[in-house]
Design a protein that fits this description.
CATH architecture: Alpha-Beta Barrel
Strand order of the largest sheet: 7-6-5-4-3-2-1-8
Distance between the termini: 25 Å
CATH topology: TIM Barrel
Largest sheet: 8 strands, parallel
CATH class: Alpha Beta
Radius of gyration: 17 Å
Number of strands: 8
Structural class: alpha/beta
Bound molecules: pyridoxal-5'-phosphate
């Protein structure tokens, strides 16, 4: 194995795993109950390959073309791909055919397309409904009042498996405030469970707020910069 001293990604990976384990412990949760989703937007395929060598299997991508090109470069690896960006209906086919998860579902028409486009030999596409909880800057995501109906509709679609909720709150550096928002997501999740949906996933928490998310029941944390370093937002640098 490559020594951590020689490689900053290896060192950050080890640190991040420890940070997640610590958050689980602080929250009284069992070790390994929180899954790390490595958010690899703008990160070159070779660095994903290296993360995979370190043991990381699940990767989250925001931009379809970029994701599909990396999937082709890494096709010999056994990776799990999560689409976590906004998805236009006319681009649904690539997600239906090439991903294991979609975290940002927010409308029925898109759900119907994805279900119809999901190849029959593949297991259903795992779905999180994105909920707009904190009046965030992005207008994406469902209002809490819209969740129940869409969840009921999705339960009828054979190509999709509803797993839970995803939230992307506006950045906030106050721990209690972060927790308050994640708690409201957890409450909406519990309402859907009470309505009979067999859910197991709360996708919430990023580099700056994963501790608060884990304290409120996150099962997937989506981590980019704390693992791969700051993004420079230059798409030519892929
Ligand atoms: C970029 C991104 C992340 C990761 O953000 P970091 O702050 O870099 O950890 C998580 N979720 C979504 C939806 C993102 O777009």
């Amino acid at each position: 194995m490559v020594s951590q001293r020689q490689n900053p990604l290896a060192a950050r990976y080890a640190q991040l795993i420890m940070r997640i384990r610590h958050a689980e412990q602080q929250a009284g949760r069992s070790a390994g109950s929180v899954q790390l989703l490595a958010v690899s937007k703008t990160v070159a395929a070779e660095r994903l390959r290296y993360a995979a060598l370190l043991g990381q299997q699940a990767f989250g991508e925001n931009y379809l073309q970029e994701a599909v090109s990396k999937q082709a470069s890494l096709s010999e690896l056994d990776l799990q791909w999560h689409f976590i960006g906004p998805l236009q209906s006319n681009k649904s086919r690539a997600v239906a055919e090439k991903f294991n998860w979609l975290h940002t579902l927010d409308r029925l028409k898109l759900a119907q397309r994805l279900s119809a486009q999901r190849p029959e030999q593949m297991p259903p596409l795992n779905i999180c409904l994105q909920v707009n909880i904190s009046g965030e800057q992005s207008k994406s995501g469902l209002l809490p009042s819209e969740l129940s109906q869409l969840a009921a509709n999705i339960a009828e679609l054979p190509g999709l498996q509803l797993r839970g909720l995803m939230a992307l709150p506006a950045p906030c550096d106050n721990f209690d405030e972060q927790r308050r928002i994640f708690a409201s997501v957890r409450k909406l999740y519990q309402q859907l469970v009470d309505e009979g949906h067999p859910l197991d996933t709360l996708s919430m928490g990023m580099s700056a707020d994963l501790e608060a998310a884990v304290a409120e029941g996150a099962t997937i944390v989506r981590i980019g910069s704390a693992l791969f370093g700051a993004r420079d937002h230059n798409p030519d640098n892929l």
